[in-house]
């Protein structure tokens, strides 16, 4: 299945009115297009198109700080909802690893 993914679809700071598609508990704070791309690729999804500067038209009426740029066209064997949940989970893992690695460096 091919579909478009906007960072706003998994951003916990946004209400569903502005395009969040996953539950707030699953969503992430300020996901970047690069994080989404990396997570999708790790999960075996194919990133067909990547435009980090594109702005979701649904976000034109909200505060600048909440406007997350980026658009990805992804091909996945799973439906969009499941793919987004998987991507959120993977980004959460990657962020935890990054924090852990940062923490280890500081202790030395």
What key attributes describe this structure?
signal recognition particle; about 110 residues; alpha+beta; Phenylalanyl-tRNA Synthetase, Chain B, domain 1; 3-stranded antiparallel sheet
Helix/strand layout:
Blueprint: E1 2-5, H1 33-42, E2 46-55, E3 69-75, H2 80-107
Antiparallel strand pairs: 1-3, 2-3
What does this 3D model show about the protein?
The protein is an alpha+beta fold and 108 residues long. It has one domain (2-107): Phenylalanyl-tRNA Synthetase, Chain B, domain 1. It is 35% helix and 19% strand. The chain has two helices and three strands. The protein has a three-stranded antiparallel sheet, covered by helices on one side. The longest helix has 28 residues, at 80-107. The radius of gyration is 14 Å and the shape is globular. The termini are far apart.
Short description:
By secondary structure, the protein is α+β, with helices and mostly antiparallel strands.
Distance between the termini: 46 Å
Globally, the shape reads: globular
Q: Give a short account of the largest sheet.
A: 3 strands, antiparallel
The ordered string of helix (H) and strand (E) elements is: EHEEH
Pfam families: SRP19 (PF01922)
InterPro entries: Signal_recog_particle_SRP19, SRP19-like_sf, SRP19_arc-type
Subcellular location: Cytoplasm
GO molecular function, one term: 7S RNA binding
